[in-house]
Amino acid sequence: MLSQKMWRFSSKLFVTINNIIMLASARRQLNFFSKGFLIGFTDIIPGVSGGTMALILGIYNQVIRAAAAINSQWLGYIFSLKIRKSATIVDYGLLIPLAIGIISGVLFFTKIVPLILYIEKFTFQVFSFFFGLILHTVLSIFYNNFKWSFRDCFFIFSGFSLGLCLLIFGQQTSENNFFTIFISGFLSATAMILPGISGALILMLLGKYAIIFNAIADLKFIILFPFVCGFLCSLVFITKLLAVILKKFHGASFNFINGILLSSLIVLWPFQYRSIEQELQINFKSFYLPTNTSDIITALGLIFIAFFLLSRLNISISQKANS
């Protein structure tokens, strides 16, 4: 009789503990999903890095470690359909809900609330805001990393030169073939991982911003397939390299990134004519200096708002780092 009661009690206790574990796991996954949704939203805004948002949300190191764990052994398990063994290498409880959240955020702001239509309707205002985001980031990196040494100047110039090359490449390449879309996915994923540089900004430099996000909104798999292939290749092969570079060459890395950001200010100059028909491509002949006082005030106001918002984000990052 006593043993039966003990068995019932043990069974109830096991069920209770199991329910608590499942509830905690569900809450953890929901937490990563919601954070992924926010990262997905920021990933479509040129000037706000998904890596920066991950830092603010306190999951950047977890994500980098989880992504860096992907290796040849994991790929072998996946291709041989040994999913349980692959779970011993990669934290699926983090990466899967996070990835679903990021995809949901991108889809929500391309299909339900299409950001690109707002860019078309309010081009001058949107690019003024984006210009302010990048300008703030450039000045912040200058303040924290740049020391007027030959080494720092070299990396700034190298990054600026690369940014100009990407800009020229993006404007001259009109064909949207597998290779160009693959490279766009590869470079945008690499940028997305880095705090301070936006994957959407790289797409803007390459002239592929409108193409990619219209393809996401319309589910054009002929464009999405090479983009996703490039994106995944970057996550698998570049994450570990970036983690090492950022750790060993932190200052040089951010000065190089800052050079790229400096070149992107050309793309985001608000006083130029753009159209969706031309896929938001930059047109150097359409650049102009503002003469209308209201346009100048509007641009400066939006730049100030961008400065204020990123200042608040930087404060959040500092608080996360010190907590």
Q: Could you characterize the architecture of this molecule?
A:
This protein is mostly helical. The protein has a domain at 120-322. It has 16 helices and no strands. The protein has helices at residues 2-43, 50-56, 60-68, 72-79, 83-86, 92-112, 115-121, 123-145, 150-172, 178-193, 199-205, 209-218, 221-237, 239-248, 250-267, 293-322. Helix 8 (123-145) packs across helix 16 (293-322), helix 10 (178-193) crosses helix 13 and helix 12 crosses helix 13 (221-237). The N and C termini lie far apart (54 Å). The model is unreliable at 12-24 (pLDDT under 50).
Please describe the topology of this protein.
Elements: H1 2-43, H2 50-56, H3 60-68, H4 72-79, H5 83-86, H6 92-112, H7 115-121, H8 123-145, H9 150-172, H10 178-193, H11 199-205, H12 209-218, H13 221-237, H14 239-248, H15 250-267, H16 293-322
Helix pairs in contact: 1-2, 1-6, 2-16, 6-12, 7-8, 8-15, 8-16, 9-15, 10-11, 10-13, 12-13, 14-15
Concise description?
With 323 residues, the chain is an all-alpha fold. It contains 16 helices and no strands. It has helices at 2-43, 50-56, 60-68, 72-79, 83-86, 92-112, 115-121, 123-145, 150-172, 178-193, 199-205, 209-218, 221-237, 239-248, 250-267, 293-322.
How much helix, percentage-wise, in residues? over 70%
Query: Number of helix segments?
Result: 16
Q: Could you tell me the mean pLDDT?
A: 76
SSE order, one letter for each helix or strand: HHHHHHHHHHHHHHHH
Q: Report the span from N to C terminus.
A: 54 Å
* Share of β-strand residues: under 5%
* Poorly predicted sequence stretches spanning 5 or more consecutive residues: 12-24
Strand tally is 0
Specify the overall morphology.
globular
The secondary-structure class comes to: mainly alpha
Q: What is the CA-based Rg, rounded?
A: 23 Å
Major beta-sheet overview:
none
